[in-house]
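Recap from last week: sequence in, structure out.
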Amino acid sequence: MAIQESGEMYLETLYILSQENSFVRSIDISEYMGYSKPSVSRAVGILKENGYVVMDEDGYLSLTENGLRIARKIYERHTLLTDFLLRLGVSEEQASKDACKMEHYISDETFEAMKRHVEKFT
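Predicted structure tokens:
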């Protein structure tokens, strides 16, 4: 099943937050993303139903193997695309915004080509 862009964003956020703190709750995602608690709760429920996220009895969220795979992929894309745009002279704020849009739509083929190009020149 294909995951929507918003789902990818939630998984990426959970991944980022879990790198900083091993205990992440929906409220942490809400604060990080600037979304309402009910919106995050709905999204987390959908991610749980689809097997991307699990919640323990204390309300702490973890990525499943599939969730982690997608989150890492999106995070890698965001990081590389931001860096690529910065190297082109785009401002940091705009590079991050544009990378956030591009990371969900760029093909694997194009992303891998960009990755090889960046690795070649670093």
